[in-house]
């Protein structure tokens, strides 16, 4: 999955939906890995989804994963992203209105309040190419 650039609300929403957030609008229990709401990608060599949580933009403290006094430990056991766009961390996305994190939070709140998402029926529509279409409704 590619990271989000300085796009608008719909670009961020599309990216959130593409990185596996559809379960927020489907019935059943959620199962998410940390960092998924930020759109974090696999890191390391070979690539692994077991990277560190990126709390802050890159720096000497391993994206805010360690305190300043612990930051000189050298290489971490888990890999960290070496991407320098600095959009893939909690601090940056929390400050932006339409970041993947904010859209994820809005979808989660909507899932708690919207009757169709709480108890509604799900209708699967005919597949159109690579597009899966479904709707939720209350009778």
Automatic annotation (TrEMBL):
Signal peptide: 1-20
One Pfam short name: Alpha-amylase
The entry's keywords: Signal
GO BP annotations, alphabetical order: carbohydrate metabolic process
UniProt keyword annotation of Methyltransferase present: no
Glycosyl hydrolase family 13 catalytic domain mapped to chain residues: 24-118
Name of this chain's protein: Glycosyl hydrolase family 13 catalytic domain-containing protein
Highest classification ranks of the organism: Eukaryota, Metazoa, Ecdysozoa, Nematoda, Chromadorea
């Amino acid at each position: 999955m590619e990271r989000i650039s300085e796009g608008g609300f719909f670009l961020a929403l599309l990216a959130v939906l593409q990185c596996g957030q559809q379960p927020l609008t489907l019935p059943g229990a959620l199962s998410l890995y940390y960092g998924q709401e930020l759109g974090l990608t696999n890191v390391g060599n070979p690539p692994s989804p077991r990277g560190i949580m990126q709390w802050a933009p890159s720096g000497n403290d391993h994206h805010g994963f360690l305190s300043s006094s612990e930051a000189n430990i050298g290489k971490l056991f888990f890999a960290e992203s070496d991407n320098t766009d600095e959009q893939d961390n909690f601090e940056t996305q929390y400050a932006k209105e339409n970041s993947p994190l904010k859209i994820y939070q809005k979808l989660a709140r909507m899932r708690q309040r919207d009757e169709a998402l709480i108890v509604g029926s799900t209708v699967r529509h005919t597949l159109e190419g690579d597009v899966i279409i479904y709707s939720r409704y209350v009778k």
